[in-house]
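TICKET: design request
STATUS: open
ATTACHED STRUCTURE:
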């Protein structure tokens, strides 16, 4: 137990650790962990393992069986009270005879918000909230952003050299970073509902934009911003697995036929805010912008970036393409600064994760 930590905090910290196991496998659902505790001992554990699968509370309660009666349930998010892909968790909690529910945070989804807690209290179950709330919100930051700000959560992912270039002067970028960094980038794809690139990146690299690492990962929607109508419909982003690729297109080239499952959206207004409105309408709650310069500039210019992932390779190329060269130059003191959340080594590369300080 950490110094000064209460039993509630200790158990909730374990529940949050369980919740994180759902990374890249449950979205757009939130990651949730749960514990059944009786007389200070953990009886059972559960977490939301995959989208459409049993919720954390149900898994923990099913494992506990009769031992759940009179016990305390620790859960990282308010239990749901509505029918979705699974039955409401609150009814299972009531049925199992849980005497107390300790939750980290209220669910921001209007279908749930406060209703689960009210239902439990109506049945005489004690409810405690706010235990490690800040950490619980951070675990599901995309989920909270979508419901509280009314728009998808936006992450930017950039792989650069030490001297700040994402490609050499001829556009070559395979591979700036090593295998460990690239594997982690695939996990980030799975963590987000959609991966966004510009048409220039598609024409130059012809990427798949899928998750290609072992495991049961969610495949993201693939989104291409094509202001000048250069796509032909034969690119790799229109094949393979996953839901239909979304193309936001400024103009349409005559005679181009896209695959039937593709969603082509004509849009003259190439603004980041408008694109988020479009993607929200397509059911996207979070997106990972992978490149190139044009999409990066759109979202940074309108201050619609929530998180950044800089993968930095220990190499210099002296001249090349900067990911932000479409943005205007800034003076020191007027620059974009980042609140660093994590710095870690991935193989021989460095990952810096942060949040832009838009204040």
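STATUS: resolved
RESOLUTION: sequence designed for all positions
ATTACHED SEQUENCE:
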């Amino acid at each position: 137990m950490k110094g000064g930590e209460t039993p509630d905090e200790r158990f909730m910290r374990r529940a949050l650790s369980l919740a994180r196991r759902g990374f890249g496998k449950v979205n757009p659902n939130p990651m949730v962990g749960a514990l059944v505790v009786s007389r200070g001992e953990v009886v059972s554990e559960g977490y939301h393992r995959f989208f459409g699968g049993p919720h954390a509370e149900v898994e923990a309660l099913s494992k506990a069986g009769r031992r759940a009666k009179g016990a305390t349930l620790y859960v990282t998010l308010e239990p749901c009270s509505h029918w979705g892909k699974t039955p409401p968790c609150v009814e299972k909690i009531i049925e199992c005879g849980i005497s107390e529910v300790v939750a980290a945070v209220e669910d921001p989804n209007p279908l749930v918000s406060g209703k689960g807690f009210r239902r439990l209290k109506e049945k005489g179950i004690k409810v405690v909230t706010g235990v490690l709330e800040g950490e619980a919100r951070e675990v599901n930051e995309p989920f909270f952003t979508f419901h509280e700000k009314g728009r998808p959560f936006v992450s930017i992912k950039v792989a650069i050299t030490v001297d700040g270039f994402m490609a050499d002067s001829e556009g070559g970028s395979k591979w700036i970073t090593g295998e460990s960094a690239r594997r982690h980038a695939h996990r980030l794809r799975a963590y987000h509902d959609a991966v966004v690139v510009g048409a220039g990146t598609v024409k130059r690299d012809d990427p798949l934009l899928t998750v290609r690492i072992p495991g049961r990962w969610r495949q993201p929607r693939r989104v291409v911003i094509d202001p000048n109508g250069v796509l032909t419909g034969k690119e790799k982003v229109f094949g393979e697995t996953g839901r239909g690729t979304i193309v936001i297109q400024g103009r349409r080239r005559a005679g181009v036929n896209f695959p039937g499952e593709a969603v082509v959206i004509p849009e003259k207004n190439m603004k980041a805010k408008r694109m988020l409105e479009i993607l929200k309408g397509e059911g996207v709650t979070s997106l990972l912008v992978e490149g190139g310069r044009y999409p990066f500039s759109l979202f940074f210019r309108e201050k619609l970036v929530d998180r950044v992932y800089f993968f930095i390779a220990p190499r210099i190329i002296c001249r090349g393409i900067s990911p932000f060269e479409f943005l205007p130059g800034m003076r020191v003191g007027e620059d974009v600064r980042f609140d660093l959340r994590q710095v870690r080594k991935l193989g021989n590369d460095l990952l810096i994760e942060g949040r832009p300080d838009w204040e």
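CLOSING REMARK: The CA atoms of residues 223 and 246 lie 5 Å apart. The chain is about 25% helix and 25% strand.
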